[in-house]
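subagent[fold] <- orchestrator: predict structure for attached chain, return tokens only, no commentary.
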Amino acid sequence: MKKSDLLEVIKKVVRKEVRLAIKEELSKKQPAKTTEFNQMMEHADGLFNGKQQNFTDNPVLNEALNETANEAWPTMGGRQLGKNDAKLGTTGLASMMGMQSPDEMFGGKPTAKQMVPKDRQHVEIGDDIAGILTRDYSDLMKVIDKKKSGK
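subagent[fold] -> orchestrator:
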């Protein structure tokens, strides 16, 4: 038997075995899982296909109100959020999301290379310019806002 004939026989046998294994795996019945997604979809179906109330004569507004009025919406952390919850810190929204500093909010502090326009990224940037491009100007903006409000 030639080497090429042996290779052809091996290829045919492997193809046949792989096909049988794939058919066997595909024919196995997957266990029915009640996943979080399925639970959410059932909940949404109950919300949108529940009883419809007539809040107003405007059908579009009435539909929107029915979508939100069927059930009380839970709040994050089990409490109502206010204007101070957007701040960083131990009680703010960012800390509820597991963030400890402003640098974590948008993927970390940007590098000088990220701040330079795409067509200028090949140009070497000195440390003084890099510092200007990556400086945190939030304190400066607070002072400007105070001056604007006259405090």
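orchestrator: received. Logging for downstream: Residues 83-149 form one domain. The radius of gyration is 30 Å.
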